Amino acid sequence: MNLFQAFILGIVEGLTEFLPVSSTGHLTIVSDLLGLDITSAEVTAFTAVIQIGAILAVLIYFWGDISRLFVAWIRGLRSAEKRTAPDYRMAWLVILGSMPIVVIGFLGRDLVKGPLRSLWWVAGALIVWGAVMLYAEKVAKQNRPETELNLKDVLLIGTAQSLALIPGVSRSGATISVGLMRGLTRVTATRLSFLLGIPALIGAGIYELPSALGEGVGWGPLLVGTVVSFVVAYAAVAWLMKFVSGHKITVFVWYRWALGAVLIVALAAGWIGATGAST
Fold first, then answer.
1. Domain count of the chain?
2. I need a labelling partner for 179 at 20 to 30 A (CA). Which of 132, 149, 203, 220 fits?
3. pLDDT-based confidence at 273, cuts 50/70/90?
4. Is the confidence at residue 278, as pLDDT, over 50?
5. Distance of CA 169 to the CA centre of its chain
């Protein structure tokens, strides 16, 4: 992988990581168009590592919230009196909601790195989960704020986050959709999506870093991809938080369906390969 390819993939990662359009799906598509083998361990590890740049953008954007929850959690561990604080409870909900993807991701790591790295899977997931997002908006009541979050909510949303291991589903699309189905406000569902993504993406990046270096990616492309993804992701997060406060996520459904349809046509016509370089 050269620096130009790393730069382009960094832009794609930062732009799509937190939008409900599937960063993994877009990275798979663009990697294929750049002539990379999308089933190779090198590409899989690289795309996981540069997610760290995107998650750093979330850490900075939500630093006030994150530091407040962390301090409340530490205080609660030390004092029974502090355990009644809403932030202590919220911190535990985020931790517990992050558990499903750790377990499912570990158990399904070989499947994710192999058979699912196909553009046919990406196309299908873009279309199918787009329908789920449309349904979520249709049934959304949005009558439950963040203060009404419970353990069942975060476990269901955390499990939905695990579905994003399938390229094309979208981590934010999955978590926001399930949050809406649970009656959460769109802003609450989106904020929770970001908070749950922090441990998941950092863990994946750290886990894949030795693999990326071992596959010969090199520090240069990794640094370029990570820095670029950070800059672009920060702008994307700021935009999305403003957008969801007054708009439905259905606008992304039409994009997902259009991209999925184009991808199916391109694959069927042989213009691009399902798992290899473009033709």
1. 1
2. 203
3. confident
4. no
5. 9
For residue 50, give the nearest of 11, 77, 88 by alpha carbon.
11
Confidence of residue 276 (pLDDT cuts 50, 70, 90): low
Whether residue 78 is contained in a domain is answered as yes
Ramachandran quadrant class, 124 (left: phi over 0; alpha: psi -120 to 50; beta: rest): alpha
Identity of the residue numbered 33: L
Residue 157 structure tokens: 């949303």
Domain extent, residue 36, equals 3-269
Would 27 be classed as within a structural domain?
yes
Is there a domain that residue 222 lies in? yes
Q: What is the DSSP string of 60-114?
A: HHTHHHHHHHHHHHHHHHH-SGGGGSHHHHHHHHHHHHTHHHHHHHHHTHHHHHT
Q: pTM of the entire structure?
A: 0.85
Within a domain: 275? no
What SS3 state is found at 116? coil
Rounded to whole angstroms, how far apart are CA atoms 84 and 65?
A: 18
Q: Are 222 and 42 in contact (CB under 8 A)?
A: no
Output the CA–CA distances (angstroms, integers) from residue 215 to 47, 76, 90, 232, 262, in the order listed.
Answer: 13, 43, 39, 26, 32
